[in-house]
Amino acid sequence: MRVDVDPETVGRREFYALLNSVVVPRPIAWVSSRSADGVLNLAPHSFFTVSSVRPPMVQFTSVGRKDSLNNVEATGEFVVNFAAEPLYEQVNASGTNFPPEVSEFEAIGVTTEPSRTVSVPRVAESPVAIECTLHTTLELGDCTLVIGQVRQIAIDAAMMDGDHPEVRRLRPLARLGKDEWSTLGEVRSITRIRHSDWPGHFTPPGS
């Protein structure tokens, strides 16, 4: 037995909460931006992913019109800072609805660090920064999809294992439903199976 929920028959907030509870876990884009007046902004956006490989692009969704969206449209630049477990309280606090003239960097006590390819600073305490220029925005209902072209990724050398960041060192945060968050937990590895090797290490049901 299932519970069927039609978005046309329940309220917006109720369905939004339900959707957030099943599209999990969600990585967090901790977006730093600068307003046209020069005020720095820092905000978490949990609708975040890669949108293109070549050229490299990432995207986040602004639910409603937030300062991040206004700033990116005004300046054409932003940085996605990695939301790591040791920064849990700061990431959450940066989601407070401060007025536009207040800088979250100052309000929550994190440090600015100059970026190399954009004028918007990074969060110095964050282990990874993805520097972006605005590629396009797309309005979808009451939300706006923001796609940025990646100009550089800056990674704390302590996070690296050879040529790649090691996820246990990065300690990513993720959003769940309601006021719930998650941390990395168990890490499992499994190789993809080539058709020529089928079934490989996969055991079909009933075998």
Automatic annotation (TrEMBL):
The keyword Flavoprotein applies. Its cofactor is FMN. The keyword Flavoprotein applies. InterPro entries: Flavin_Rdtase-like_dom, Split_barrel_FMN-bd. SMART domains: Flavin_Reduct. Residues 21-175 form the Flavin reductase like domain. Signal peptide: none annotated. Keywords: Flavoprotein, FMN. It comes from the Bacteria. GO terms for molecular function: FMN binding; oxidoreductase activity, acting on the CH-NH group of donors, NAD or NADP as acceptor. Pfam families: Flavin_Reduct. Belongs to the flavoredoxin family. This is Flavin reductase family protein. It comes from Kribbella jiaozuonensis.
